[in-house]
Amino acid sequence: MRRRIPITVIFVVGQFIAFFLDGSISQILSGTLYRYPNSLVPALTLLWLVLAVFFGDRKKLHLGIWAAVIGFIFDMYYTGLLGVYVFIFPLVIYLCQSVYQMLPPNFMSGFLVYFLGITVWTTLGFIANAFIGQTSSSLAQYLVNTLAPTLAINLVFMALAYFPVASLYRSHRR
């Protein structure tokens, strides 16, 4: 008889894989992703959390707590500025949970919710950086050169990951 790995373990391992893939993809493809004037920011960490909102057991996975933990680690590892993503990740997860509950559970609803999540995540990050003087971009530059390309790449990632992750979570419900 085969022992099954609990979904909570799969979630945590997947979260850290997504976290490190964010940085690895950014580093390996930096010449393409960050070619002036555009920035395509991969958000696989957020994608994994949002897919857990869609398919996982919210009470068993404790997504709000994990969003804060991964936000803290994200701040320490990638930004060096503590406090920004500690609040942004849980806020986006809460928003995605709230909106997704009002919609029928299907791919298009998930696509819309992830679109909203990436928009809020990127915009709050931009506002925080503008507030502390880390960016000098105008709102128009941000919308055209950062938000639009970031949405494009992350929605492609979401389309590619949606069904495999759905089947992963579905196989652990039985």
List the helices and strands and how they pair.
Blueprint lengths: L6 H22 L1 H4 L10 H12 L2 H4 L1 H17 L4 H19 L4 H25 L7 H33 L3
Helix pairs in contact: 1-3, 3-5, 3-6, 3-7, 3-8, 5-6, 6-7, 7-8
Describe what this molecule looks like in 3D.
The chain is an all-alpha fold. The chain has a single domain, classed as Orthogonal Bundle (Arp2/3 complex 21 kDa subunit ARPC3). Helix content is 78%, strand content 0%. The chain is built from eight helices and no strands. It has helices at 7-28, 30-33, 44-55, 58-61, 63-79, 84-102, 107-131, 139-171. The longest helix has 33 residues, at 139-171. The chain is globular. The mean pLDDT is 88.
Please tag this protein with its features.
174 residues; mainly alpha; Arp2/3 complex 21 kDa subunit ARPC3; Rod shape-determining protein MreD; Cell_shape_determining_MreD; transmembrane
